[in-house]
Amino acid sequence: MFISVVLDPGSIDSARAIVDLLTQMGFKKVQRSCWESMKLDANGLADLKREIDRVTDYYDNVRFYQFPVNGMFVITELKEKKWRKCQFKGNPLATDSAGRKK
């Protein structure tokens, strides 16, 4: 599964703690505040989310972009110490390169 994590930490301490967790779990920094991994499975991701929840506070924002999760694109966000999740299916009105419906 592809996972991208975008950080908006509320403090230096929580930023360091989150970055330490991500590097321990095999994530690579690809841009400022953006980390990616293709090696983590669903169980590892659940563990990572629990650990991130443990080291963050109300002012930290963390967003996960995951694909595929049961054939869907999933965005999970930790904001104000609450987890929120959005799932997106493929576009039923998708077209091919010539503009024809698939």
Throw out a few tags for this protein.
6 strands, six-stranded antiparallel β-sheet, 26% helix, alpha+beta, 102 residues, 2 helices, globular, single chain
Concise overview:
With 102 residues, the chain is an alpha+beta fold.
Report the count of strand segments: 6
- Terminal Cα span: 26 Å
Radius of gyration: 16 Å
Give the count of helical stretches: 2
Structural class of the secondary elements?
A: alpha+beta
What is the spatial order of strands in the main beta sheet? 2-3-1-4-5-6
Shape: globular
Average of the residue pLDDT scores:
90
Give me the strand/helix succession: EHEEHEEE
> Which residue ranges are poorly predicted, with pLDDT under 50 across at least 5 consecutive positions?
none
**How much of the sequence is in beta strands?**
35-45%
Molecular structure report:
The protein has helices at 12-24, 42-55; strands at residues 2-8, 28-31, 34-37, 61-69, 72-79, 82-88. A 6-stranded antiparallel beta sheet has the order 2-3-1-4-5-6, covered by helices on one side. Helices cover 26% and strands 38% of the residues. The longest helix has 14 residues, at 42-55. A hairpin with a 2-residue loop joins strand 5 (72-79) and strand 6.
